[in-house]
Prior knowledge:
4-stranded antiparallel beta sheet, alpha+beta, two-stranded antiparallel ribbon
Amino acid sequence: GDIDVSEEDVEQYREDHADHLTGADTALAQQIFIRVPTNAIAAVRAAKRKETEHIRTKLLEGETFDRLAARYADETAPAGRGGAQRPVKRGEHPLPEVEAALFSIATNTVSAVIESELGYHIVKVISREKGRTPSDDEIKGAVDQQKRSARLHQFIKAVRKRSKISYGRNVYEP
């Protein structure tokens, strides 16, 4: 049968899911990451910073992020994808210095060299999306799916309760 989703259901859903209902702003970026060992001496850190500044200069002179990421990025970074990152939600990037750049620089702009506890980063924000709150219709769809799922689980539970399954000599009863 049909599932009824009332306004009360929508409000209850908003209350129950308030902590994650409003979407966070999201940024999609490319990154070149140059790792610096945590125990590196000052001269090594300085050399790595100089290398990162050199890469940034090449970017500003027109070299592509893809090519430079493939050539220079740390082996654990997504260099094979031209430094492309998965979308990052505000508040979820593990390095606050990098996140600050992701949500402050203009799109299609190369960041300054960013220093973090792991090394040096250069980011270029490809796109940014504002977080949004789902509409009542979207929430009604989610509530409808929840109610349908609950109804299906009740049906399955009832069928199992009435069932006897035999396989060979074994008989399984709930």
